[in-house]
Amino acid sequence: MTIQRIAEFTRPTVFGDFHIINYNKDGQFLFAITKGDLPQDNLLVRVQSACLFGESFGVNSCDCAAQLQEALKIGSETYPFLLVYMTNQEGRGLGMFQKIKAIEVEAVDNVDMGEAFERLNLPFDLREYHTAAEIIKDINGDKPIKLMTNNPKKVKGLEENGVQISERVPLLIEPPHEATRVYLSVKKHKMGHILPHID
Fold first, then answer.
1. What is the tens place of the pLDDT at every residue in 8-53?
2. Could you tell me which of 142, 113, 138 has the C-alpha nearest to residue 125?
3. Is 125 annotated as catalytic?
4. Per-residue pLDDT averaged across 159-186, rounded?
5. 127 is catalytic
6. Which secondary-structure segment (H or E) carries 35?
7. 127, 142, 168, 199: which one is catalytic?
8. Are 7 and 132 in contact (CB under 8 A)?
9. Does the pLDDT of residue 1 top 80, yes or no?
10. Of residues 92, 125, 142, 168, which has the active-site annotation?
């Protein structure tokens, strides 16, 4: 196993009390936010990649913050629940530097995120799912999960790393801004996300 469990505690949040398990992987800190007694069959799980601009600065050109908040809201009302927060996957695994350059092209040249990535010859997604799978199995063993995602590649990536997924649960966000709608359109048409509410 490449992850190390280093601390755990329960903290109050705006969505209620969550138990937080902290992991170290190669000097980077990853987090599992849980509710209810675990392990459990068909545990509802969300795997969320960190997004500084959306989640911390309130930038509306992505749906990351809205997805995180909605997942935690659902999780606060669902027992049991697990959210795996991947701080090491900014920019879909490209890293912060490449993400910043792509955002610059998007903003300065007034193009969508997909076009910005293409102009920089960057792949749309370099995320690996081995680490998230390790965290899920550390908490829930080999029991099947229900994965909250719109991304079929996330389902495939976790399954390839030994996670049994009994159901894909959609996490559909009504775009809070026109820039968010453009971003979701790129996700749907260029990245294969299942977003029936987006043209």
1. 999 999 999 999 999 999 999 999 999 999 999 999 999 999 999 9
2. 113
3. yes
4. 94
5. yes
6. strand 28-35
7. 127
8. no
9. no
10. 125
